[in-house]
């Protein structure tokens, strides 16, 4: 898995470096600030690719005494670093565009610049799709984030091609810094989104999509001994997850039987999370008389209340630290 992730990110690094050189050559040829904006963003692709290589290597290291949950959190640093670099590039692009508004420059060889930008955009499109698909298959938030950044580069480059075409046929050179401003705004937005994703991961913000997925898995394989599940907390460490929860079981179950139920839950969820490891810390709660009205266990010699109806598991009753009902 590690070799495949490193191979994917190395492909991104090499291609991004070649495309950056091509874009800067187009800038020196045309003196277009919009092309310069595109080239500056490509530098970020190269820098982020290098940092991603290290973060993928570090995230693959096994757990140790100092890092009992592994090293996966470094991937959130990686996308945060990339987001910060993108944000800085966006600011530089806006500053450069303002300078060109105040001190306009003549553009040269627009047609040649168009061809270079067009070829690099097509190459970036294939690279971005490759990274996003690989990031989902592995899975890797670093590679996925890198792919999403490349796709943003594709969208901005497409707008750049349209603007340069208009400039070429109309001579409206003022469009050059105007388009650069739009690209700078788009880049700032993408940088903010990546930094927001990084902060949420480092702060252990709950990913409700993962919570919903776990609830669906457990609900569809629900056993009668699982009276309810509550106080669920999900933490992500790179590609892996750590889950705390309480499971209410019949109070008279022997320890071995209760342990078997817990191991089954862990095995069940792991079988549905392809490419990821899910570690469970499960606290076993004994049932109390108030559980009887929603307990599905039909043959129970100690039932003290009639069964009224099953309570569906949702975020509202799985996340809080209290038994259902």
From TrEMBL:
Family to which this protein belongs: Belongs to the cation diffusion facilitator (CDF) transporter (TC 2.A.4) family.
Keyword entries, A-Z: Membrane, Transmembrane, Transmembrane helix, Transport
GO biological process terms, semicolon-separated: intracellular zinc ion homeostasis
Any one Gene Ontology molecular-function term assigned to this protein's record: ferrous iron transmembrane transporter activity
Domain Cation efflux protein cytoplasmic span(s) in chain numbering: 210-287
Cell compartments where the protein resides: Membrane
Pfam families referenced in this protein's UniProt entry, alphabetically: Cation_efflux, ZT_dimer
Predominant place of localization: membrane
Keyword Oxidoreductase: no
Membrane topology: Multi-pass membrane protein
Residues annotated as domain Cation efflux protein transmembrane: 9-203
Source taxonomy: Bacteria, Pseudomonadati, Bacteroidota, Chitinophagia, Chitinophagales
Superkingdom: Bacteria
N-terminal signal peptide: none
Gene Ontology CC terms: plasma membrane
Protein name: Cation diffusion facilitator family transporter
Species the sequence originates in: Chitinophaga niastensis
Transmembrane segments: 7-30, 42-59, 79-102, 114-132, 153-172
NCBIfam families for the chain: CDF
């Amino acid at each position: 898995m590690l070799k495949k992730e490193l191979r994917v990110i190395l492909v991104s690094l090499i291609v991004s470096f070649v495309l950056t050189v091509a874009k800067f050559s187009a800038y020196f040829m045309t003196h277009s600030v919009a092309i310069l904006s595109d080239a500056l963003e490509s530098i970020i692709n190269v820098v982020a690719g290098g940092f991603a290589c290290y973060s993928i290597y570090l995230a693959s290291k096994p757990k140790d005494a100092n890092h009992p949950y592994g090293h996966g959190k470094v991937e959130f640093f990686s996308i945060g670093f990339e987001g910060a670099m993108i944000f800085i590039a966006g600011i530089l692009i806006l500053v450069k565009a303002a300078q060109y508004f105040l001190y306009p420059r003549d553009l040269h060889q627009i047609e040649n610049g168009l061809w270079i930008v067009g070829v690099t955009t097509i190459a970036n499109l294939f690279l971005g799709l490759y990274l996003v698909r690989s990031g989902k298959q592995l899975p890797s938030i670093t590679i996925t984030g890198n792919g999403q950044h490349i796709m943003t580069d594709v969208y901005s480059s497409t707008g750049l091609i349209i603007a340069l075409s208009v400039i070429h046929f109309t001579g409206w050179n003022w469009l050059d810094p105007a388009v650069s401003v739009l690209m700078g705004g788009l880049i700032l937005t993408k940088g903010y989104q990546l930094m927001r994703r990084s902060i949420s991961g480092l702060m252990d913000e709950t990913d409700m999509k993962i919570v919903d997925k776990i609830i669906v898995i457990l609900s569809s394989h629900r056993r009668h001994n699982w009276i309810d599940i509550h106080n669920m907390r999900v933490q992500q460490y790179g590609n892996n997850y750590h889950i705390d929860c309480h499971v209410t079981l019949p109070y008279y179950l022997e320890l071995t039987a209760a342990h078997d139920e817990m191991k089954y839950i862990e095995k069940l969820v792991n079988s549905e999370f392809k490419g990821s490891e899910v570690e469970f810390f499960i606290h076993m709660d004994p049932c109390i008389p108030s559980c009887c009205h929603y307990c599905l266990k039909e043959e129970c010699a100690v039932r003290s209340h009639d069964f009224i109806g099953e309570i569906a598991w949702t975020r509202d009753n799985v996340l809080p630290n209290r038994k259902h009902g």
